[in-house]
């Protein structure tokens, strides 16, 4: 069983913000998997999340996959993840976190197991609640491009304002492609493994 968690903030106010890129990816993954009319998220109060359960078929057999959009807000994402892992007895290495990453260039992607949070509060929360860093992350780059300034030159408050802003015109085509690549990387990870996804989709 796999738990694939898109990080973000619930509510219309945050729907199109950079910090909700994780939500966007799991939504697109589900849209690709099922006809639009059958694409449904369950507002699950018990798990403090919107969840969707699917069965993924691969050559090695079928596997249950739970897609998750926590409703605990970004800084408490780990609470929802822990509720789900405890109930379904899911090991940390079977938890895949889909996140925005301000420290990576716009449009880039790094898939990795474990490591520091790089200041991402959602990832910090998951680490805290699981008691380990040994879960998979899909780090999706939203960093500023050359000519548009760099986050390193700004204060933390500016960075928070940046991630809670919406994608500008020059960013949208990059993000559209990044979402497609992230979805394909998830699909390959489920069909083969995440090492295959790393080899094919990690930005060099």
Give the arrangement of secondary structure elements.
Layout: E1 2-6, H1 21-33, E2 42-44, E3 49-58, E4 61-70, H2 77-88, E5 95-105, E6 109-113, H3 121-130, E7 136-143, H4 156-163, H5 169-191, H6 194-201
Helix pairs in contact: 1-5, 2-3, 5-6
Give a brief description.
The protein is α/β, with parallel strands linked by helices and 204 residues long. The protein is built from 6 helices and 7 strands.
Give a description of the structure:
This protein is an alpha/beta fold and 204 residues long. 36% of the residues lie in helices and 25% in strands. A seven-stranded mixed β-sheet has the order 2-3-4-1-5-7-6, sandwiched between helices. α1 packs across α5, α2 (77-88) packs parallel to α3 and α5 packs antiparallel against α6 (194-201). The protein starts with a strand and ends with a helix. Mean pLDDT is 92; it is low at 146-156.
Q: Bin the helical content.
A: 25-40%
The largest pleated sheet is described as:
7 strands, mixed
First-to-last CA distance: 30 Å
Could you tell me the radius of gyration in angstroms? 16 Å
Rounded mean pLDDT score: 92
- Give the helices and strands as they follow along the chain: EHEEEHEEHEHHH
Q: Which runs of at least 5 residues are low in confidence (pLDDT < 50)?
A: 146-156
Could you list some keywords that capture this structure?
204 residues, alpha/beta, seven-stranded mixed beta sheet
């Amino acid at each position: 069983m796999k738990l694939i968690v898109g990080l973000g903030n619930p509510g219309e106010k945050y729907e199109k913000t950079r910090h909700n890129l994780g939500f966007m990816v799991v939504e697109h993954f589900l849209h690709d998997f099922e006809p639009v009319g059958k694409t449904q998220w369950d507002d699950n109060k018990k798990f403090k999340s919107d969840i969707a359960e699917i069965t993924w078929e691969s050559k090695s057999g079928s596997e249950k996959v739970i897609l998750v959009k926590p409703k605990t807000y970004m800084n408490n994402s780990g609470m929802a993840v822990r509720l789900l892992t405890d109930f379904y007895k899911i090991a940390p290495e079977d938890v895949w976190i889909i996140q925005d990453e301000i420290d990576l260039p716009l449009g880039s992607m790094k898939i990795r197991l474990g490591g520091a949070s790089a200041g991402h509060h959602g990832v910090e929360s998951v680490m805290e609640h699981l008691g380990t860093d040994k879960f998979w992350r899909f780090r999706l780059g939203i960093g500023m491009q050359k000519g548009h300034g760099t986050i390193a030159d700004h204060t933390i408050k500016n960075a928070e304002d940046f991630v809670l802003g919406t994608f500008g015109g020059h960013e949208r085509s990059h993000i559209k492609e990044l979402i497609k690549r992230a979805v394909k990387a998830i699909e390959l990870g489920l069909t083969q493994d995440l090492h295959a996804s790393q080899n094919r989709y990690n930005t060099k």
